[in-house]
Amino acid sequence: MTSRDRSPTLTAPIRIVGPTDAAEMTLPVEGMTCASCVNRIERYLKKADGVLDASVNLATEQASVRYDPAVAGRPELVKAIEAAGYNVRREPVAAEPAALVGEPDDLELERRREARDLGVKALVSVAIALGIMALMFWPGRPLAMEDVNKLVLWPATFVQFWAGKRFYDAALKAARHRDTNMNTLVALGTSAAWGYSAFVTLWPHAVMAAGLEPETYFDSSAIIIGLILAGRWLEVRAKGQTAGAVRKLMGLQAKTARLVRDGEEIDVPLEQVHAGDVLRVRPGEKVPVDGIVVEGTSSVDESMLTGEPVPVTKTAGDEVIGSTMNTSGSFLFRATRVGRETVLAQIVRMVQAAQGSKAPIQRLADLVSSYFVPIVLATGLATFAVWLAFGPEPRLTLALASFITVLIIACPCAMGLATPTAIMVGTGKGAEAGILIRGGEALELGHRIGTVVFDKTGTLTLGKPAVTDVITVQGLDARDVLVLAASVEKGSEHPLGAAILTHAVERGVETRPVTDFGSLTGHGVEGSVDGKRVLVGNARLMAERGVDPQGLQKVAEEAAANGQTPVHVACDGRLVGLILITDPIKPEAIEAVRALRGRGLEVWLLTGDHRATAAAVARQVGIEHVMAEVLPGQKQDRVRELQERGQVVAMVGDGINDAPALAQADLGIAIGTGADVAIEASDVTLVGGDPRLVVSAIDLSRRTLGVIKQNLFWAFAYNVLLIPVAMGVLYPFFGITLDPALAAAAMALSSVSVVANSLRLRRYDPRPRPAGPRDPRPLRQGLGSASS
Question: Which helix (H) or strand (E) holds 393?
Answer without folding.
Answer: none
